[in-house]
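Build the 3D complex.
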Amino acid sequence: MKFWGYPRPDGRVGVRNLVAVIPSVYCATGVARRIAAQVEGAVALHHEVGCSQVGLDLEITARTLKNLGKHPNVGAVLVVGLGCERLKATELAEGIAPSGKPVEMITIQESGGSLKALEAGASIVRKLAQEISTMQREEFGLEKLAVATECGGTDAFSGIVANPAVGVAADMVIAHGGTVMISEVTELLGTEHLLAARAVNQEVADQICKVIWLSETMLARVSENDASRKRGALISTGNMEGGVTTVVEKALGGARKAGTSKFSGVLKYGESYPGPGLYLMDTPGHDAESTTGMVAGGCQVVLFTTGRGTPTGHPIAPVIKITGNSFTFDKMSDNLDINTGQVVEGTKTLQEAGEEIFREVLAVAGGKRTKAELLGHDELMSVWRPWPEHEAAYGCGQWA
Amino acid sequence: MAEQAIVIDPRDSVAVALADLVPGQMCAVKVGDGVKSVEIREKIPFGHKFALKRIAPGENVLKYGEVIGESTAPVEPGDWVHVHNLVSKRGKGRAGQEAGQ
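Done.
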């Protein structure tokens, strides 16, 4: 089983060949967006962090942005700084450089304002885009492919068909030597005994229980006053309208995205995976923070299940939208790629739906564009800011 | 498929409606390879849950073969099971903290 991708100098393989315009601080996000808008094939990795941060919070931001710059779907990078920020543009550019791809940098203050930075940045990005446009795809085995799994806008059919179908595809990716990630730890409460039983060893089992316990400790803290206690259900009104009542019910359905393979390890937020296998990444349930974490971790393609229907995409990784609800698929056909609702209707088996998703992963990896890409959706770019529970558990300086 | 509801795991105390269900109708429920019949007592929207058995207040409610929460009111077979009579035991306040440790 093979897919077509772009070989990178560091040995990794991209499924897209983009120029990433990365602001080192939120102050540069407007200029970064305008630069990217000037050049076909350029994307802005907009975010809201990069300054007034300390400790683990700053480390997570720095590492996530560096790993996104080093991501194999990115062929070249322009870092856009302001000039006085906490996360220096030079630090970010130097962190990305070891990937061997072209990396350039400008700052708005040195350029002499946003208009001059826009002009300078757009010229650089045009040059970079042309430079990487001659790169050709080659065939690679699935040991070079990592797939993120995510769910958003869950309804009752996400857990019954869409997530189990993604689980079938996840098992196929793993069986062919590839990598799969699941995350959204706040939405795994009540599944730790099932996930830990699938760990490759006791250490990984303990880590699975620890990250779920950390998120539950955070939830206990924030729901101490009566006003928030009523918000303790952790599920949205849309989930409830869709028939999901409790967080554990949502979690049992959500965990099915990970299929049935053994867990090779637990990854910290945005951390690169060490080798092929199934991983749990420690992210919250927020779709954008979770997806950005797994993409920074190296996932080139995202499988995103939705019951209610969502239009979101990520600037550097194609997002395949899958629903288990035929009504939603018909209603939101602008935004949804695959319908597994036929499994509920009895006209397709779960195995067939999973195989269809697996084939779509390989097609999209090889260049087929998803609906989120075609419509320019990039909302899933967001860097997580850790909770005090993580600072206490991991401290600072252990994430390098 | 002729069934209008599905049971995900044979141990479950609730079924999931595959269509909007109305009070008084006899609903064919798919359980594994078999089918059982349940008389629906309330309006059950598409995708929502109804009870397969009598559930006492404080009793665990099972879906996917696992505990998804506990009942807060007496529930009869065919009753709608949702936020009005089912609460999470996890992810909130002291109860959640204890369960996590």
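Residues 226 and 321 of chain A are 37 Å apart (CA to CA).
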